From TrEMBL, chain A:
Entry similarity comment: Belongs to the binding-protein-dependent transport system permease family.
Annotated compartments: Cell membrane
Matches recorded under PANTHER family: GLYCINE BETAINE/PROLINE BETAINE TRANSPORT SYSTEM PERMEASE PROTEIN PROW, GLYCINE BETAINE_PROLINE BETAINE TRANSPORT SYSTEM PERMEASE PROTEIN PROW
ABC transmembrane type-1 domain boundaries: 160-339, 473-652
Record-given protein name: ABC transporter permease subunit
PROSITE patterns, per the entry: ABC_TM1
Provenance organism: Leisingera daeponensis
Positions of transmembrane segments: 31-51, 63-85, 106-131, 137-157, 164-188, 208-234, 272-300, 320-338, 359-377, 428-446, 453-471, 477-498, 507-530, 536-554, 592-614, 634-652
UniProtKB/TrEMBL annotation, chain B:
Classification via SMART domains: AAA
Pfam families per the UniProt record, alphabetical: ABC_tran
Domain of life of the organism encoding this protein: Bacteria
Protein name: ATP-binding cassette domain-containing protein
PROSITE patterns: ABC_TRANSPORTER_1, ABC_TRANSPORTER_2
Length: 667, 340
């Protein structure tokens, strides 16, 4: 790559357009040669060695079986003398049941023993609007008012509150655990370096894969869902705590130490307050992850919006599903905006104390009034069913219309894609013998990052092979590759447009922000409406979910190109087109690469979930493992997805870092 | 200024790298530049010894990378020195337990930082009261104390302001007040005025001197600005590559620089304000002494006007009113305009 780059630069500098076409021609030739070499190697291997074409069953390390056996043992037989592991999990469940019973009682069911009703919907809505007013502005208050009224009016208040009561228990748990771990790791750099890869794996293993082991250990139900979510949502908090604590200026810490702070005083009086903004940002991430996971955890028995959505999807009630999806989105937007406002909230503003006291007083009075009045006025308490509206029939009609009118067109499009693009590329990938694939990965790693990177990525790529998940992994790879290519084709031009125009950019970024708050599950609904089930549907869902970072990073990368460099290029006499191709894009490329990396990571998450709409890849393995209670298979399939993600991540990140260093963009 | 040493350090080393102690042992405490490079060690402070006398302002002057920041952090043990002795009031600082050291910091040391180091989430008053809060002083008491020091630095009425609402000069006043609330015996100032613009810097230097006249602290003051060092110091230690190359009074640094490196700083100094008649007089007395005299301690700026008007030489009298040398007009002019 690099040699060709310098060639191109040198020759186009020398003799203008002709040599540029020459350079491109050279590059194409090299590519063609490489492709021919790969095909030839593949052909030879396939014909010469049976073991290269199909990885022999006997070479598979039965790790997944060991894991299943281990979890079975842990779940049913493990005995620590005084208590069994089962007792332990039961105890944990019971401890967690308490707060959950409380929030559920508060928001949904009321408390049976003492005749207490749950909080009236008006009160909950008021609390949130006032919180919005306190932490943000009138606008935020209005948005929150709108969101919660939406939930009531569309008749999904109860499942929404069910979901919310889970979130309410999980978020403090996950945040505190994450913070505690973050503090410990921040003080132990060696431990942190050792655990960092573990965090990487945890954060790149799809939601889905966490469910199977939890089911074996804790069974089905609310509490297991809760535990799975806590485990899933804590890592971002750990990361944010680490970043936050590290970003505290060393001078502040010295100031604290010189004042004679003990370790604890330093933490509580200096480091935490100074890192508050980052910590709150972490909290926001925890909330969003929690919501996304809680919805998916309905697969193992979490009640609420996700549960209802799953039922609606299974019975193909697409209108209802869409409405429930919208409810999830509304809840997500509300929680996201509120927690973001909290991270930006400045309690130290002049006059803020007075304002705060006013709002709190007003809020307490109003809430007390609504709670007191609720038993006497039905509408206050539960939103009157007679006034709920539903758009489900409308959407059902749309679905029917779409399938009546567009069916042929869509079907033809789908079939065309399948038979001329998707299936051939899938078959091509599957045809490639595994030694060739691994060699390709290793070579890429070597060219970009040297021997160490090559060893890392080759090991990662071999993981699916030796665990016996090669074929589903290749299918996942093909789906993600297809989706990422399309995402790039869509995201790059949009990001480019956004970087040219302020108003357009703020509009596009607003849409990106909103799209990113949608829990991944929601993306499946419209896709199923259009394409039913199968690969096309899954890939479309991945594209819809994963294009956002591409847009974001392209925009960011182009905007970060230094104004001075651009001015210099313009002064030399670059046309707009030349400026873009010769100055801006090359300088933005490292950032854009990070965007592609992010797109791949998000795509892999979606691929796993897309198993619900019928694919044959790793996601499907996880889904089946979940229904069969096959822990090992689910976990290993999840780790295979993680290994794909981390391979891409290592390669792209290294490239991006080296490139920015070469361009002098770092520091 | 008493002559007892408040702090004294001997053979202080701070080496960064994979194995600092082993590195020092291996090279017999005389590693050369090549040794550092070869083993990826960096000698931030190398074999530094000096005393800080009670009540003096000792300025440590050096360019960036000379090790002055590391040195002050070794003295406060914000950074653990690699080797050496460090005594405070004849107690070995490096042997103190963690608890004892925290106590020492709470009661006896105060520090001002280059970028102020104010806690962004606390008001001016709370920032100044912070060291007392750490010690568990009740709120009433510590706020009263903090108010007193805020008045001292001229920040009356700014108690409820947050750091970002203050100008740079005001922020450093808060930093100064905070470092004084515990009435420390030793006052560390780490480039306290470097982040301020020139006019404010000058103003704060003057106030700092005024404060010191009444407080009489033992002060270690870090700067990279030679003219600041001249203005403030009782003694200046000039650092280069982790070593102290000269430790002397401002006048002697300018009049008798230890090497060409020190001389370069002195070249641009306002010599008429720094040098005194005694430092530049010709000690070889002629047979006939000039009729008029000056005192050895008089600064040149006091002498110049008369000498340039009448053009006569002067005899320089020492403390005992005995002739210590002669000052000709030529000698005076060459001292002021050409260095030595």
């Amino acid at each position: 790559m690099t040699t060709v780059d310098t060639n191109a630069a040198r020759s186009s500098g020398g003799a203008g357009g002709n040599s540029l076409t020459y350079a491109i021609g050279l590059r194409c030739m090299r590519l063609a040669l490489a492709a021919a070499a790969v095909i030839a190697a593949g052909y030879l291997m396939n014909n010469l060695f049976v073991w290269a074409r199909d990885y022999p069953e006997s070479w598979v390390m039965p790790i997944s079986r060991y894991i299943s056996a281990f979890f079975d043992w842990l779940g049913y037989k493990a005995d620590f003398g005084l208590f069994t592991f089962r007792d332990l999990t039961r105890a944990v469940s019971q401890v967690l049941e308490w707060p959950l019973a409380f929030t559920e009682g508060l928001l949904v069911s009321g408390f049976g023993g003492v005749p207490l009703l749950p909080l009236p919907w008006v009160t909950v809505t008021l609390i949130f609007s006032l919180a919005g007013l306190l932490l943000g502005s009138w606008r935020l208050a209005a948005i929150l008012l709108g969101c919660f009224t939406f939930l009531a009016v569309f008749g999904v208040w109860e499942p929404a509150m069910n979901t919310f009561s889970l979130v309410l228990v999980i978020v403090p748990f996950a945040a505190l655990m994450g913070m505690a771990a973050g503090v410990v790791l921040a003080g132990a750099p060696r431990l942190e370096r050792g655990l960092s890869p573990v965090l990487d794996v945890m954060q790149s293993t799809p939601h889905f894969a966490y469910l199977a082991p939890i089911v074996v250990l804790f069974g089905f139900g609310q509490v297991p869902a809760l535990i799975a979510t806590v485990i899933f949502a804590a890592p971002p908090m750990i990361r944010c705590t680490l970043v936050g604590l590290r970003s505290v200026s060393p001078e502040l810490i010295e100031c604290g130490r010189m004042a004679g702070c003990t370790k604890w005083q330093l933490l509580s009086k200096v480091r935490f307050p100074a890192a508050a903004a980052t910590l709150l940002l972490g909290l926001n991430q925890v909330i969003m992850q929690t919501l996304a996971m809680v919805v998916i955890a309905s697969l193992i028995g979490a009640s609420g919006l996700g549960h209802d959505l799953l039922i609606a999807l299974n019975s193909l009630k697409l209108g209802t599903a869409l409405e429930l999806g919208a409810a999830i989105v509304v809840l997500a937007v509300a929680l996201d905006r509120l927690s973001l406002a909290a991270s930006r909230y400045d309690p130290y503003k002049r006059g803020e104390q007075k304002r705060r006291r006013g709002i709190l007083l007003f809020g307490v009075v109003l809430c007390a009034a609504t709670v007191a009045a609720a038993p006497f006025a039905d509408g206050l308490h539960l939103y009157p069913a007679a006034y709920t509206v539903t758009s489900a029939p409308f959407w059902d009609a749309v679905v029917i219309y779409v399938s009546d009118e567009w069916y042929d067109g869509l079907q033809a499009f789908k079939n065309f894609l399948l038979s001329y693009v998707l299936i051939p590329s899938r078959n091509a990938l599957l045809w490639l013998p595994w030694p060739v694939v691994i060699a390709l990965v290793a070579m890429t790693g070597y060219r970009i990052g040297g021997g160490k990177l090559a060893a890392t990525v080759a090991t990662l790529a071999a993981f699916p092979l030796i665990t016996g998940f090669w074929v589903p992994t290749m299918i996942t790879l093909y789906m993600i590759a297809m989706a990422v290519v399309v995402s790039i084709l869509i995201g790059l031009p949009i990001g480019l447009l956004a970087s040219r125009n302020e108003r357009l950019s703020s509009f596009i970024l607003l849409i990106c922000d909103t799209l990113q708050t949608f829990p991944s599950f929601v993306y499946l609904i419209p896709v199923v409406m259009l394409f039913k089930v199968g690969d096309v549907a899954a890939i479309t869902a991945v594209i819809a979910y994963a294009t956002v970072p591409m847009i974001r990073y392209t925009n960011l990368g182009l905007r970060r190109v230094s104004a001075q460099t651009k001015e210099a290029a313009e002064a030399i006499g670059c046309t707009k087109r030349q400026l873009l191709w010769k100055v801006e894009l090359p300088l933005a490329l490292p950032e854009i690469m990070l965007g592609i990396n992010q797109t791949i990571m998000m795509g892999l998450f979606m691929v796993a979930i897309a198993a619900l709409v019928g694919t044959k890849d790793l996601g499907q393995q996880i889904a089946r493992a979940l229904s069969d209670g096959d822990t090992g298979r689910g976990l290993i399939a999840g780790l295979c997805i993680a290994s794909l993600g981390i391979t891409a991540d290592r390669i792209l990140r290294t490239w991006s870092r080296k490139r920015s260093e070469a361009l002098g963009l770092t520091g | 200024m008493g002559n007892t040493a408040k702090i004294s350090c001997r053979g202080l080393w701070k080496v960064f790298g994979p194995d600092p102690r082993g590195f020092l042992r291996q090279h017999g405490h005389t590693p050369g530049p090549g040794d550092y490079a070869a083993t990826k060690h960096v000698g931030a402070v190398q074999d530094v010894s000096f005393d800080v006398l009670e009540g003096e302002i000792l300025v440590i002057m050096g360019l960036s990378g000379s090790g002055k920041s590391t040195l002050i952090r070794c003295l406060t043990r914000l950074i653990e020195p690699t080797e050496g002795q460090l005594e405070f009031e004849n107690r070995d600082l490096l042997q103190l337990s963690k608890r004892e050291h925290i106590d020492l910091r709470r009661k006896k040391l105060g520090m001002v930082f280059q970028h102020f180091g104010l806690l962004p989430h606390r008001t001016t008053l709370e920032n100044v009261a912070f060291p007392l809060e750490i010690q568990g002083v009740p709120q009433e008491e510590r706020n009263a104390c903090a108010r007193k020091y805020l008045t001292l630095v001229g920040l009356d009425g700014k108690e409820d302001f947050y750091p970002r609402e203050l100008s740079g000069g005001q922020k450093q006043r808060v930093g100064i007040a905070r470092s004084l609330t515990t009435d420390p015996e030793i006052w560390f100032l780490d480039e306290p005025f470097s982040a301020l613009d020139p006019l404010i810097r000058r103003e704060l230097q003057d106030e700092f001197l005024k404060l010191q006249q009444s407080l009489r602290k033992t002060i270690i003051f870090i700067t990279h600005d030679f003219s600041e060092a001249l203005r403030l110091a009782d003694r200046i230690a000039i650092m280069r590559d982790g070593r102290i190359v000269q430790l002397d009074t401002p006048e002697m640094i300018v009049a008798r620089p230890a090497d060409s490196y020190v001389a370069k700083f002195g070249a641009d100094a306002p010599k008429e304000d720094v040098l005194s008649a005694g430092a530049i007089a010709d000690p070889n007395l002629p047979d006939v002494l000039p009729a008029q005299h000056v005192r050895a301690s008089q600064k040149l700026s006091e002498i110049i006007p008369q000498m340039l008007t009448d053009g006569e030489s002067r005899v320089v009298l020492n403390r005992d009113n005995l002739p210590a040398g002669v000052l000709t007009k030529e000698r005076l002019l060459s001292a002021v305009f050409r260095g030595n």
